[in-house]
Amino acid sequence: MPDAVKDAAAGAAPSARPTNVSRTTFHVASGVVSLALLRLAPERWWLVAISGSIAASGYAMEIARRRSDAVNARLMRLFSAIAHPHERHQVNSSTWYVSALLLMAIAFPLRAAELGVIVLALADPAAGIVGRRWGRTSLRANRSLEGTATFALVAFAVAAGWMVLMQGATWSTALAIASVVAVVGAAVELVSTRIDDNFGVPVSCALAAAAMQRLLGGG
């Protein structure tokens, strides 16, 4: 292959980053814990109190590391296994995530919040793995067609399965809601640059699910 063609092909594909196994594991585990809270908390105020406490801790650390380079460096070392280097000077993804949990605990139907959490927990890392390993068709912001398609497929499957198995929805209702949730989630993940997808994906998916559940009479 001529060098010019090779260069063009390399430019068309998203740049590859190695998969951070620790971060991916933490990402999925956070989703599992969040789902457990949504399912097992005896009252909504428990969810608000727990997510609010975690969010407050996150905000306190964000403020502290903005005020002190030494604190920032210490926290980045502490969370080096799961933090991206660019988060040294940006709001950490975990802070965005707990902010989303707090918002959903306060304002969203819990069944819709469950879908937002499970889509982020499973579809987002699946898209990252596929995009990094097999992504060839660049879309935008280091996202690939292959990764985005994987996100939509996994989101559709896990949302539909969760609604049928855990929420008692009929297959027709589950498939209708899951299709909208998957498209919305994949679109938000694709365009998320200014707002972290750890906030945008669960909130948008929960919002889409709530709207569809209302439209279809509760699912």
Quick tags:
single chain, 219 residues, mainly alpha, two-stranded antiparallel ribbon, disordered N terminus
Give a brief rundown of this model:
The chain has 219 residues and is mostly helical.
Order of helices and strands: HHHHHHEEHHH
Write down how many β-strands occur, each being a DSSP E stretch of 2 or more residues: 2
**How far apart are the first and last residues' alpha carbons, in Å?**
54 Å
What is the residue-averaged pLDDT?
A: 90
Strand content: under 5%
Helix content: over 70%
- Kindly report the spatial arrangement of strands forming the biggest sheet: 1-2
Radius of gyration: 18 Å
The total tally of domains equals: 1
Structural class: mainly alpha
Tell me the overall shape.
globular
User: Counting H and I runs of at least 4 residues, what is the number of helices?
Assistant: 9
Q: Tell me about the biggest sheet?
A: 2 strands, antiparallel
Describe this structure in words.
This protein has 219 residues and is mostly helical. The chain has one domain. The chain contains 9 helices and 2 strands, in the order ααααααββααα. Helix 3 (44-67) packs across helix 4. The model is unreliable at 1-13 (pLDDT under 50).
